[in-house]
Amino acid sequence: MTKIAEAAFDHVIAVDLARQMLRRAPGQLAPRLQADAARLPLATGSIAAVVLVDALLFPTEITRVLAADGVLIWANQLGADGPLFLDTPTVIGALGDAWSAVQSEAGWGSWAVLRRAGEP
């Protein structure tokens, strides 16, 4: 996902709690940050986009770091058949604010792009 994000954004940071996961990422990718997503060492409202794959553990922290006009990209690798599947209404409910979403499926996976209500 980091490589795809780098094609769309000027600055990308790969974040994971596990150092081993960060080490497994290909060498030429974005800067890596080992951090606990419960308390990200990022300024409030400083992130244009957050990409989450099968893990929505700290929605309050995600909404804190995400810019007011930022986007949350939520992906389920195995769609509704996956053990970590959350449908888009559940994700919106966890975020705690009014959000809008565009969602779709591709192959066996699903994804959604979410924005705070009122943002284009």
Structure characterization notes:
The protein has helices spanning 2-8, 19-24, 59-65, 88-95; strands at residues 14-16, 32-34, 47-53, 66-76, 99-106, 109-116. The protein is α/β, with parallel strands linked by helices. It has two domains: 1-35, no CATH class; 45-120, Rossmann fold (3-Layer(aba) Sandwich), CATH 3.40.50.150. A four-stranded mixed beta sheet has the order 3-4-6-5. The chain has a two-stranded parallel sheet with strand order 1-2. The longest helix has 8 residues, at 88-95. 13% of the residues are buried. The mean pLDDT is 84.
Please describe the structure with a list of short key phrases separated by commas or semicolons.
Rossmann fold; 120 residues; 23% helix
Number of strands: 6
Strand residues, percent:
25-35%
> In the CATH hierarchy, what is the superfamily of the largest domain?
Vaccinia Virus protein VP39
Q: Return the CATH architecture of the largest domain.
A: 3-Layer(aba) Sandwich
Number of domains: 2
Reported by name, the CATH topology of the largest domain is Rossmann fold
* Rg, alpha carbons: 14 Å
Shape: globular
> What share of residues is helical?
10-25%
CATH class wording of the largest domain: Alpha Beta
Which sheet architecture does the biggest sheet show? 4 strands, mixed
User: Mean of residue pLDDT?
Assistant: 84
Helix count from the secondary structure assignment: 4
Strand order of the largest sheet: 3-4-6-5
Secondary-structure element series: HEHEEHEHEE
Low-confidence stretches: none
Judged by helices, strands and strand pairing, the structural class is: alpha/beta
Distance between the termini: 24 Å
